[in-house]
Amino acid sequence: MGQTLSEPVRDKQTSSNGDRRLIYALSEMQGWRISILLVIRRFGANEFVTVVPYEIYKTTIQCMEDAHTAILKLENKAQKEGFSFFGVYDGHGGPNIAKYSGEHLHKRIAHDDAFVRGDFSSSIMSGFLGLDDDLKNHPEYRTDPSGCTAVVALITPENRIYVGNAGDSRAVISVRGEARPLSNDHKPHNKDESDRINKAGGFVEFGRVNGNLALSRAIGDFEFKQNTGLDAKEQIVTAHPEVDEFTIDPETEFIVLACDGIWDCLSSQDVVAFIRQELSKTASLRLACENLMERCLAPGSDLGGVGCDNMTVIIVGFLQGRTEQQWYDWIKERVEAGIGPTLSEEALRPSPLLFHPFTSEDHALDLEILSSELKGDDLRGTEDDIAAQNALEIEEDIGGKEDIGGREDTSVKKDISGKEDISGRKDISGGETAGPSLAGSGLDVTTGPSLTGSSLNAIAGPSLNVTEGKGTKIGELKGDDLRGSEGGIAAKNEGVVNREDISGGKTEGSGTKVGKAE
User: Fold this and answer.
1) Radius of gyration of the chain (CA)
2) Distances (CA, A) of 241 to 128, 180, 204, 223, 448
3) Do residues 262 and 380 share a domain?
4) 470 and 418 in a common domain
5) Does the residue 516 lie in any domain?
6) How far apart are CA 165 and CA 240, in angstroms?
7) Is residue 2 part of a domain?
8) Which of 3, 123, 124, 501 could be a cystine partner for 112, CB 3.0 to 4.6 Å?
9) What pLDDT digit, counting tens, does each position of 17-32 carry?
10) Which helix (H) or strand (E) covers residue 26, if one does?
């Protein structure tokens, strides 16, 4: 997970289409996530990183890191009709690799020689690895720190489905309401994955590749593919996909492709049951997609990242001789007849977000906190920036104001020179909340004063010192690295920060490593 907003962005980008064989809808939603831009500044052999929040430089980087593809009529080297292609690409560390994959992977697959021979499994494998090689040799992308998962479905004129997957996005098909998996999640703790990682010279720590990446197969992430003595399939992280096949039969209802922002929140069976229930009520694939994302959206950004990720979902319905309305009626009849498993007790509960009316003031506070003191020379990249950001900070919490929960929480932040920084901003609870110091050269994303109510969770936790001195190399910033919530990650941090609570006791925290956010 990356940084999070104080309120989710619930705007959805939804589209749908169909032909005589298929109908589909897809939708994506940003949710709680803020993307960040890591700006590299160099002085001779030295380099350091400046973290730029998306809300300040949104023209430079997108906040939505997922991408998708939906093609009813896939052009191919065999010049045959009746092929359709769908794909979901879950980006991490930025949107670039995911966006490129969404624009080019289907072309790589459809124009592979194996596609002409009808060997679609081989064409999918070649397409994944070939695209990854294209990116690695592309001057614009070979140094890009981002990566993405990829789960794709190729549907043939003979009603065969070929699903290729690399990463932890997932494909599931509904047969009489039962969820049938068409992909396997590639996680570092899986034995086959950890064996490959270890043989390639890597390691698995805290369930992450080299203590960092939370998935073990991906397009991009080239820092994990540097062993020139190994084949592309044998690298620490590989783009080599697993391919599953499935034959559509009269009981086949629909297929779901989605990123882990969905699967982390609901089981495969509950996703299928939820969609069937929505279709029986709304007769709309579009609403089924949108309501599924709303159901998975977390009520707050402090739940360990579950429900806080970007979300993308594609649902493809198989008409099999029916009209669109007849297909919806068919699904409804099956649901009402009790055909297929029903929703679990957990999935039946409504999303708590239905009872949390966010206001525009929440989003305004985010922008104010992030941009209030950012000066024009913050990114100028001088050596003074490095020294300024390496300064230790002492935080002293003092009681004074109450929020709606009855907690007293007003903070005064001092730097080593003793200068106070109190922004005096009000959160939606009515309490006074001091904002993080963004003044001076370089963006300081260290532990700030407590921000109740609509605060940015990403600012909480151990100090995030984005520049660690001259010659610092760019590390990895994946998963919970920005929030400092994992003890293992905190143990690796450098640069002790002393914090003094109101009782007078001192605790020690550490600066978090910098790189790309998953």
Assistant:
1) 24
2) 7, 19, 20, 19, 42
3) no
4) yes
5) no
6) 8
7) no
8) 123
9) 999 999 999 998 875 5
10) strand 22-34
**What percentage of the chain has pLDDT greater than the value 70?**
56
> Taking 70 as the threshold, does the pLDDT of residue 190 lie above it?
yes
Q: How confident is the model at residue 405 (pLDDT cuts 50, 70, 90)?
A: very low
To which H or E segment does residue 489 belong? helix 487-492
Give CA torsion, residues 258, 263, 265, 266, to 10 deg: 100
Residues 333 and 391 in one domain: no
- The alpha carbon of residue 429 and the mean position of all alpha carbons in its chain are separated, in whole angstroms, by 29
Q: From CA 346, how far away is CA 472, in angstroms rounded?
A: 46
Q: How many residues does the chain have?
A: 518
Within a domain: 77: yes
What value does the mean pLDDT take over residues 380-404?
38
Please name the residues in contact with 325: beta carbons below 8 A apart, sequence gap of 6 or more: 283
Supply the pLDDT for residue 31: 58
Answer yes or no: do 403 and 255 share one domain.
no
Quote the number of domains for the chain: 2
CB 155 within 8 A of CB 82: no
Q: Rounded CA gap, 209 and 207, in Å? A: 7
Contact call for residues 139 and 121 (beta carbons, < 8 A): no
3-state secondary structure of 333: helix
CA distances from 165 to 129, 186, 218, 313 (A): 12, 9, 9, 15
- ∠ CA 349-350-355, rounded to 5°: 135
Cβ-contact 77, 115 below 8 angstroms: yes
- Asked, for residue 39, whether it belongs to a domain, the answer is no
Per the DSSP assignment, residues forming a β-bridge with 161 are: 155, 246
**Tens digit of pLDDT for each residue in 33-83?**
555 444 433 334 444 444 444 343 333 344 677 899 999 999 999 999 999
Sequence letter at residue 212: N
Mean pLDDT of 337-365: 62
111 shares its domain with 207:
yes
DSSP secondary structure string for all residues of 275-305: HHHHHHHH--HHHHHHHHHHHHS-SSS-STT
